[in-house]
Amino acid sequence: MPTVAPLDLEGHCVAAVFLGDVPHFALADGVVHRLDHGHKTVQANDGLLAAFHDVANDRLITGGEDGKVFAIGAGGNAAELASAGKKWITSVAAGPQGAIAFASGKTAYVRFADGKTKEFAHPRSVEGLAFSPKGMRFGVARYNGATLHFPAAEGKPVELEWAGAHTGVTFSPDGAFLVTTMQENALHGWKLADGKHMRMSGYPGKVKSLSWSAKGKWLASSGAPAAIVWPFSGKDGPMGKAPLELGTRGNAMVTTVACHPSQDVVAVGYDDGMVMAVRFADAKEVLLRRPGKGAITSMMWDKEERRVAFGSAAGDCGVIDITA
Prior knowledge:
By secondary structure, this protein is an all-beta fold. It has a domain at 1-37 and 209-324: YVTN repeat-like/Quinoprotein amine dehydrogenase (Methylamine Dehydrogenase, Chain H). The protein has no helices and 30 strands. Strand 7 (59-64) and strand 8 (68-72) form a beta hairpin. It is globular. The model has no long low-confidence stretch (mean pLDDT 96).
């Protein structure tokens, strides 16, 4: 039976991540808690709005109401990377070669590893950011679609149009597909080679969490009473294919999904605080955590694939050891 080491904090957990092998919990007040030979804290933003785990550099990128972007390292060091003055930072992302992106209002910014920053203005507000895993390009979710920029080169961006408000964005691990979350309880995707559309609708709620499986063959999503897992193994992605529905519960909604680092298994967090692990092949379920005080807002597996860090909207966080 998995064991849970709880960490009860005050406030909404924006991100639960492992930096090195140390679990970190970033709360909405900007304090980052870590379990590193005891409970330790570091203050980052004054009011945290966005956080992104930079896997390549093993750091947490944060942005907030203070207009600042921080990088938090495994030792608890919080370094300011950028500032947008008094404007709120609403989205952050990390990319190749140490680059990061952040958004404030209608402007997206890319800060390169050498500290140089480039601005990209948009007609409407920038809602989400993501870097492609291949090459230096990043995607912006916006009203009526997405925009692809190539920050290291001069040239026009690529505009991907689809009516409606797009709130978040992700690239597939092979860089072949771009998928956005939408205001109207749906996902929308583009096959980047030919611009073909992929409509992924039918959700009863908004999709706020996406996670790609280890080899990028599946995309797990929240926003329903089950984790909705779309197949991406074919050349046209999920077009014409039905998704898997894993971990179905009639009386609860899935709020967070986190795919296992190497196996076709997904950790599923619900609005009542329960966490389950479900295998894609046969939908076998293992209860990882009983319901808690608040909806699960963030989860991450550790590198050894035996622990899951989780955070909730009510601050009841913790670490699940699945091998115990």
